[in-house]
Amino acid sequence: MADRRPLFALVAAALLGCAPAPAPTSVTGSALPPRDLALLEHMIQLNALHLGIEPHLRDADKMGELARVAGEIAALGSAPVFVDWPKRPNFPHEPARYERFRQDLLRGAAELQAAAESADKGAVVAAYARLDASCTACHKRYSPTY
After folding, report:
1. In this predicted structure, what is the pLDDT of residue 107?
2. Helix (H) or strand (E) holding 64
3. What is the pTM of this model?
4. Contact of 26 with 145, CB cutoff 8 Å
5. Residue 90 gets which letter from DSSP?
Protein backbone atom coordinates (compact mmCIF):
# COMPACT_ATOMS: atom_id res chain seq x y z
CA MET A 1 0.00 0.00 0.00
CA ALA A 2 1.29 3.41 -0.96
CA ASP A 3 2.15 6.00 1.67
CA ARG A 4 -0.65 8.59 1.52
CA ARG A 5 0.88 11.07 3.95
CA PRO A 6 2.31 13.34 1.22
CA LEU A 7 -1.09 13.45 -0.50
CA PHE A 8 -2.81 14.16 2.83
CA ALA A 9 -0.34 16.97 3.55
CA LEU A 10 -0.98 18.49 0.11
CA VAL A 11 -4.77 18.37 0.56
CA ALA A 12 -4.54 19.80 4.09
CA ALA A 13 -2.33 22.64 2.89
CA ALA A 14 -4.76 23.43 0.06
CA LEU A 15 -7.74 23.42 2.42
CA LEU A 16 -5.97 25.58 4.98
CA GLY A 17 -4.99 28.00 2.24
CA CYS A 18 -8.67 28.37 1.32
CA ALA A 19 -9.80 29.01 4.88
CA PRO A 20 -11.36 32.41 5.40
CA ALA A 21 -9.09 35.03 6.86
CA PRO A 22 -9.88 36.18 10.37
CA ALA A 23 -12.17 39.19 10.53
CA PRO A 24 -10.20 42.46 10.61
CA THR A 25 -10.34 44.38 13.85
CA SER A 26 -10.21 48.05 14.77
CA VAL A 27 -7.56 49.61 16.97
CA THR A 28 -9.85 48.86 19.92
CA GLY A 29 -9.94 45.16 19.02
CA SER A 30 -13.60 45.05 17.99
CA ALA A 31 -14.54 43.42 14.70
CA LEU A 32 -14.81 45.80 11.77
CA PRO A 33 -18.07 45.87 9.80
CA PRO A 34 -17.84 44.68 6.20
CA ARG A 35 -16.82 47.47 3.82
CA ASP A 36 -19.29 48.78 1.29
CA LEU A 37 -17.09 48.81 -1.80
CA ALA A 38 -19.35 51.21 -3.71
CA LEU A 39 -19.13 53.67 -0.83
CA LEU A 40 -15.38 53.14 -0.53
CA GLU A 41 -14.89 53.87 -4.24
CA HIS A 42 -17.07 56.96 -3.85
CA MET A 43 -15.04 58.16 -0.87
CA ILE A 44 -11.79 57.68 -2.79
CA GLN A 45 -13.12 60.04 -5.48
CA LEU A 46 -14.32 62.53 -2.87
CA ASN A 47 -11.07 62.46 -0.90
CA ALA A 48 -8.95 62.94 -4.02
CA LEU A 49 -10.85 66.12 -4.83
CA HIS A 50 -10.89 67.34 -1.24
CA LEU A 51 -7.21 66.79 -0.58
CA GLY A 52 -6.11 67.84 -4.07
CA ILE A 53 -7.35 71.40 -3.69
CA GLU A 54 -5.62 72.17 -0.41
CA PRO A 55 -2.29 73.33 -1.93
CA HIS A 56 -4.14 75.78 -4.20
CA LEU A 57 -6.36 77.62 -1.72
CA ARG A 58 -4.46 80.91 -2.02
CA ASP A 59 -3.61 80.65 -5.69
CA ALA A 60 -5.53 83.39 -7.54
CA ASP A 61 -5.09 81.54 -10.84
CA LYS A 62 -6.85 78.45 -9.47
CA MET A 63 -10.09 80.04 -8.20
CA GLY A 64 -12.12 78.81 -11.18
CA GLU A 65 -10.78 75.30 -10.69
CA LEU A 66 -11.49 75.45 -6.94
CA ALA A 67 -15.10 76.48 -7.67
CA ARG A 68 -15.47 73.59 -10.13
CA VAL A 69 -14.05 71.05 -7.69
CA ALA A 70 -16.26 72.35 -4.86
CA GLY A 71 -19.24 71.74 -7.15
CA GLU A 72 -18.03 68.18 -7.79
CA ILE A 73 -17.68 67.59 -4.04
CA ALA A 74 -21.27 68.76 -3.54
CA ALA A 75 -22.44 66.44 -6.33
CA LEU A 76 -20.60 63.48 -4.77
CA GLY A 77 -22.08 64.37 -1.38
CA SER A 78 -25.54 64.18 -2.92
CA ALA A 79 -25.04 60.90 -4.78
CA PRO A 80 -27.36 58.00 -3.83
CA VAL A 81 -24.52 55.79 -2.53
CA PHE A 82 -23.63 58.55 -0.06
CA VAL A 83 -27.19 59.57 0.83
CA ASP A 84 -28.46 56.01 1.26
CA TRP A 85 -25.53 54.63 3.25
CA PRO A 86 -27.17 55.10 6.70
CA LYS A 87 -30.31 53.31 5.48
CA ARG A 88 -28.45 49.98 5.50
CA PRO A 89 -29.64 47.54 8.17
CA ASN A 90 -26.15 47.20 9.70
CA PHE A 91 -25.40 50.94 9.86
CA PRO A 92 -23.01 51.34 12.82
CA HIS A 93 -24.24 54.57 14.47
CA GLU A 94 -26.97 57.18 14.53
CA PRO A 95 -28.22 57.99 11.00
CA ALA A 96 -29.28 61.51 12.03
CA ARG A 97 -25.73 62.39 13.04
CA TYR A 98 -24.40 61.07 9.74
CA GLU A 99 -26.93 63.24 7.90
CA ARG A 100 -25.79 66.31 9.88
CA PHE A 101 -22.20 65.62 8.85
CA ARG A 102 -23.30 65.16 5.23
CA GLN A 103 -25.19 68.46 5.32
CA ASP A 104 -22.08 70.13 6.78
CA LEU A 105 -20.12 68.75 3.82
CA LEU A 106 -22.67 70.17 1.37
CA ARG A 107 -22.68 73.58 3.11
CA GLY A 108 -18.89 73.67 3.16
CA ALA A 109 -18.72 72.80 -0.54
CA ALA A 110 -21.30 75.48 -1.41
CA GLU A 111 -19.43 78.08 0.67
CA LEU A 112 -16.14 77.09 -0.94
CA GLN A 113 -17.65 77.32 -4.40
CA ALA A 114 -19.12 80.78 -3.72
CA ALA A 115 -15.88 82.04 -2.16
CA ALA A 116 -13.80 80.75 -5.08
CA GLU A 117 -16.20 82.27 -7.62
CA SER A 118 -15.78 85.63 -5.89
CA ALA A 119 -11.97 85.08 -5.68
CA ASP A 120 -12.02 85.91 -1.95
CA LYS A 121 -8.92 84.07 -0.72
CA GLY A 122 -9.75 84.56 2.97
CA ALA A 123 -13.24 83.19 2.48
CA VAL A 124 -11.84 80.28 0.42
CA VAL A 125 -9.52 79.29 3.25
CA ALA A 126 -12.30 79.59 5.87
CA ALA A 127 -14.77 77.60 3.74
CA TYR A 128 -12.18 74.90 3.10
CA ALA A 129 -11.51 74.66 6.84
CA ARG A 130 -15.23 74.08 7.49
CA LEU A 131 -15.42 71.53 4.67
CA ASP A 132 -12.35 69.74 6.03
CA ALA A 133 -13.78 69.75 9.58
CA SER A 134 -16.97 68.07 8.34
CA CYS A 135 -14.90 65.34 6.68
CA THR A 136 -12.78 64.79 9.77
CA ALA A 137 -15.78 64.68 12.13
CA CYS A 138 -17.63 62.17 9.97
CA HIS A 139 -14.59 59.93 9.46
CA LYS A 140 -13.86 59.89 13.21
CA ARG A 141 -17.40 58.72 13.88
CA TYR A 142 -18.09 56.40 10.94
CA SER A 143 -14.83 55.08 9.57
CA PRO A 144 -14.49 51.38 10.40
CA THR A 145 -10.84 51.87 11.36
CA TYR A 146 -11.62 54.02 14.42
Report:
1. 95
2. helix 63-77
3. 0.70
4. yes
5. T
